[in-house]
Structure formats: C-alpha cells, structure tokens
Design brief:
Family: Belongs to the thiamine-phosphate synthase family.
Number of helices: 9
Radius of gyration: 16 Å
Mean pLDDT: 95
Keywords: Magnesium, Metal-binding, Thiamine biosynthesis, Transferase
Helix content: 40-55%
CATH topology: TIM Barrel
Largest sheet: 8 strands, parallel, barrel
EC number: 2.5.1.3
Shape: globular
Pathway: Cofactor biosynthesis; thiamine diphosphate biosynthesis; thiamine phosphate from 4-amino-2-methyl-5-diphosphomethylpyrimidine and 4-methyl-5-(2-phosphoethyl)-thiazole: step 1/1
Cofactor: Mg(2+)
Distance between the termini: 16 Å
C-alpha cells in the first residue's frame, strides 16, 4: 500500500500542474499522491484537491499536506502532518473513522510517540539531504531509518533525497515505501519515472522477503 508515494510540487515540475503531475504519476503506478503547496489560497487548494481526488479515485490514495481542513472538505483519504502541526489526537477527533494520518519523524522517539498517538504511518524526513524542501534540514541517514523501522509496528516510509539508485538500500533497511518529489516530478517523463521506481520498489521487496 505504501510502495511509491509521490508528493506534487509545481515549482519542480517543468510547468505541470498538481493535477497533471498526479495523473501522470498514477499512470506510472504511484499508489499514494500527496498535494503539497505552501503558496496557494485555501480556496485554490480546495479546488485542486477536489480534482486530484477524482484523478486518484480507484487507483491511489490521496493525501493533503498539513491542511486538515482542505483534506476533509475535499474528501481526501488522509492528511500528512509535520511535528509543528496539530497533534494527531486532535486531528483524529475531527476526522471520519478510516481517515489516514501520517506524520514526519526524525528519531525513534518521535516515531514511537506518533505510533502511540495513533498515526497510520510515519515518514522518516529527510532520509538524505535534499533541495526539494528548503526547510527539511540535514539528512538522518540509513542507520536512523533502520532503527525507526525496527522500533515501530506501523508502516514507515522515507522521504528526502530518494531516487532510483538508493531506493533498494532503503527498502532493504526496512522501509515499507518511499516518498519522492523531484525523482518523479522533475523527470522528463513523469509516468515513466514513476513506473521505473515502482518496479525497483517491488523488486527490492521481493529480494528482502
């Protein structure tokens, strides 16, 4: 379920809209799409989210970054939180039963706290240093990924500096999936990049089992 998680970013997409990124990534096999945009108004985000929900319907889970209100209003499958966003327990009170809540973590302690609070998944962020998110900070590295994966029962994904070359090592370290921005969004062919990465993840999981 958490194999390939694509985060949309219009600033890195060579002119593609959030909706078009989603459409092409889903066609390539991405099974989670996250809308991430810090610049647009609430109304703009809502309208985009409604369109992306329809693009993902039946093919991929649709997640909204940070904005619980937009996620709920658009009927998204879930929301992704940061450490400075509303607490998981508070968000859970607002949401329907099967609404997914993911959260970025940077340590075993944060991952355990998130799981205890009811997170559906945690995202080690950033795994490696990345230029796709200016506020991401220094990469935590493979060792932290391995420690977090062995410390919690909920799914763990990684984000930050992940590409086709380092994905096999990360899956071998225990990740349930990888989240990418530029590795797919900035590719000359978004669909083909998603297809290639999906196959790499699948193969890496088969080799792990």
């Amino acid at each position: 379920m958490y194999d390939l998680y694509v985060v949309t970013d219009e600033a890195l997409s060579h002119g593609l809209t959030h909706e078009e990124i989603a459409r092409r990534a889903v066609a390539g096999g991405a099974n989670i799409i996250q809308l991430r945009d810090k610049e647009k108004s609430s109304r703009e985000l809502y309208e985009i989210a409604c369109k992306m929900k329809e693009i993902c319907r039946g093919y991929a889970l649709f997640i909204v970054n940070d904005r619980v209100d937009v996620a709920l209003a658009a009927g998204a499958d879930g929301v992704h939180l940061g450490q400075s966003d509303l607490p998981i327990a508070a968000v859970r009170k607002l949401c329907p039963k099967n609404f997914l809540i993911g959260i970025s973590v940077g340590s075993v302690e944060e991952a355990k706290e998130a799981e205890a609070a009811g997170a559906d998944y945690v995202a080690v962020s950033p795994v490696f240093s990345t230029s796709s998110k200016s506020d991401a900070g220094a990469g935590h590295g493979i060792a932290v990924v391995r420690d977090i994966c062995s410390s919690v029962m909920c799914p763990v994904i990684g984000i930050g500096g992940i590409n086709a070359e380092n994905t096999p090592e990360l899956i071998a370290a225990g990740l349930d999936g990888v989240a990418v921005i530029s590795a797919v969004v900035s590719a000359p062919d978004v669909t083909e990049a998603a297809r290639e990465l999906s196959l790499i993840i699948k193969t890496a999981k088969e080799n792990r089992s």
